């Protein structure tokens, strides 16, 4: 192609995020399975990845990132997932809510709201886009909750309010989880909890709930992406089920790149 091989254009680099994210393990597996000669997966963060994407897109340069849906990048840029014929990145994922053992006895109202929590990609997207456009996540979450009382009341109707009980939610600073965690934290505050949000790496997020040092997380990507963490801790938490469906992970490139499959990275 015009500027040497695809690998040359990409400097044989896949632009990743934080090391503990499941998508990073999946990408390492893809490098193996597809025999991506000479490629390295760059570890950074969700924010650094989106900054690199913006810079490349601006100059119509080649880039391949570890990408996921829902995410604001698909609204902002013309992007595509590379086909994954070997199915390394799995099929559709759901995001689950995970509670510590004992939460139902200690904080029944929080447990009930977390168990009821379910929303869709458009809901999450509203908060993600607002944050990407400069809003503080606390404000973007509060706006969404204020504007979506019909949906929120389905989670909170009939749930007893509390008076300042302390609650800790853990998450990883992925744009999707910044949105969901701030939102459900605001809902829990509105029924009286004093909510602390703790941002950790993926392993730390899971460990905190599994050891009971945190109360819950709404950031479990299953069945594939967080399978390792789910298996590690499966006796030590309560899976409250799906809070968002139709999620997905994979390798993502700008539409201007003339490749369609992960296999084309070897061209
Ligand atoms: C980056 S996705 C939101 C989740 C994951 O890969 O662990």
Describe, in plain words, how this protein is organized in 3D.
It contains 12 helices and 9 strands. With 267 residues, it is an alpha/beta fold. The protein has 2 domains: 6-91 and 249-266, Glycine betaine-binding periplasmic protein, domain 2 (D-Maltodextrin-Binding Protein, domain 2); 93-246, Dipeptide-binding Protein, Domain 3 (Dipeptide-binding Protein, domain 3, Roll). The strands form 3 sheets. Strands 3, 4, 5, 8 and 9 form a 5-stranded antiparallel sheet that branches. The chain has a two-stranded parallel ribbon with strand order 1-2. A two-stranded parallel sheet has the order 6-7. β1, α2 and β2 form a beta-alpha-beta unit. α7 packs antiparallel against α8, α7 packs across α10 and α8 crosses α10. The longest helix has 16 residues, at 175-190. The mean pLDDT is 97.
């Amino acid at each position: 192609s015009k500027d040497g091989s695809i690998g040359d254009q990409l400097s044989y680099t896949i632009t990743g995020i934080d090391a503990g994210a499941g998508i990073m393990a999946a990408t390492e597996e893809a490098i193996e399975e597809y025999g991506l000669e000479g490629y390295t997966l760059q570890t950074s963060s969700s924010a650094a990845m989106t900054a690199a994407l913006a810079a490349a897109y601006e100059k119509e340069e080649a880039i391949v990132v570890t990408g996921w849906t829902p995410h604001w990048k698909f609204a902002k840029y013309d992007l595509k997932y590379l086909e994954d014929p070997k199915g390394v990145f799995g099929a559709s994922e759901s995001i689950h809510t995970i509670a510590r053992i004992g939460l139902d006895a200690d904080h029944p109202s929080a447990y009930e709201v977390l168990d009821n929590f379910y929303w869709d990609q458009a809901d999450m997207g509203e908060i993600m886009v607002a944050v990407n456009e400069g809003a503080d996540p606390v404000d973007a979450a509060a706006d969404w909750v204020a504007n979506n009382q019909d949906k929120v009341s389905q989670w909170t109707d009939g749930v007893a309010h509390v008076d300042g009980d302390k609650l800790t939610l853990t998450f990883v600073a992925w744009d999707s989880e910044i949105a969901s965690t701030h939102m459900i934290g605001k809902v829990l505050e509105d029924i009286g909890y004093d909510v602390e949000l703790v941002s950790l790496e993926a392993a730390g997020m899971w460990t905190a709930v599994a050891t009971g040092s945190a109360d819950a997380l709404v950031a479990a990507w299953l069945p594939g992406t967080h399978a390792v963490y789910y298996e590690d801790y499966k006796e030590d938490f309560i899976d409250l089920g799906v809070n968002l469906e139709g999620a997905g992970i994979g390798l993502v490139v700008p539409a201007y790149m003339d490749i369609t499959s992960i296999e084309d990275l070897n061209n």
